[in-house]
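Much of what follows relies on a compact textual record of a protein's fold. A record is reproduced here so that you can trace the correspondence yourselves:

. . .
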Amino acid sequence: MKYQRPKGTADILPNEATQWAAVESLAREVFKKYRYQEMRTPMFESFDVFSRTSGETSDIVTKEMYDFFDKGNRHITLRPEGTAGIVRAYVENKLYGPEIQKPFKTFYMGPMFRYERPQSGRLRQFHQIGVEAFGSDSPALDVEVVTLAMALLQSVGLNSLKLSLNTLGDNESRQNYRQALIAYLEPHEAELSADSKERLHKNPLRVLDSKDANDQKIVADAPSILDYLTPAATEHFTQVKEYLDALNIPYEVDSNMVRGLDYYNHTIFEVMSDSKAFGGKWTTVCAGGRYNGLVEQLGGPETPGVGFGLGVERLLLILAAEGIDLNEQHDLDVYVVGIGAETNAASLKLVQALRQQGFSADRDYLDKKPKGQFKAASKANAAYTLTIGQEELEQHKANLKNMANGHQEAIDLEQIYTDFGQAEAILAEKEN
């Protein structure tokens, strides 16, 4: 039998994993500047955590969730997105308590799972990096989250970005808009796709998010939610735009934009790239918004929230298409060449001492001849070789060779064990 990875998953091999690690490392650096701290939640949750928060008519709940009943007959779901699990943890661990600094800012990284047709940048097991901020209804926090998303993408080298912005208003705004949207769509009901017909009266905003080409033509002339905002919702969105203007962050208002999850309200946004990875078309890399009311849905007190999620696979496709390599040069500092079995212990001691001093070091484990070991050092692009044989052991020395210019010098082993940097300096001085 030939064993293969499950459809819609990917093996992240060592040469790729370094790029992943670089993205994650840069994200951590950016998040630290904004004072967001990491949370890690389980990869599976109770089904209700997502069905209650994501919306019964959303694609995630109706089509895409990996859910099952475990041996205890509990309805379990592999997490399809990050926010609901973070909110559940926020409520369960009472992170809204008076001793917790507000707003509470956190980030997450990890795999998510959705059963959908695998395609470029969209897998059944995919990875997200996201942030959430709880405890403030301020439009300034909306803008901080937007700027954080932009800063994260810019930190990895993306500059051709577009910020699309919209508001879904407060509850009153949405109710007013819902009625107007139903009134607009009902005359077109026969023309709508099956999914949109199902959603027309349950959640008409989902129709705006339809990927069906004919649905998109119909909603192109739909009324705008911006015409149904309450004064309070209008003021919130106006302040968001004013703050973005003050920060000189350009944006476009897309009044037909909705998010794929039902918990969003007020500010929503998408950051897009026109990378050639997706044919030069504007493609969403990162998206999010405000979700006041979500904490209450999972049993917590009234607590506003705002955040975003970023698809790592999609980001890496863009970086590859743009020729952006975040990998550090993991070239080898020192390769220890041991000549003869009697040098095994000494060469092990050398590589361990070098590693403890902060240098990358390696040696042969395949009983190669000296010539083969030097080839391995060259292939690993080692900066130096340290050669030790029977004679060097007796003299308590090792030959340090600069692989770039061929200069070498016998260095006391004790010097290497205690301060290899000084051994480099000795060789450099001899070279001059």
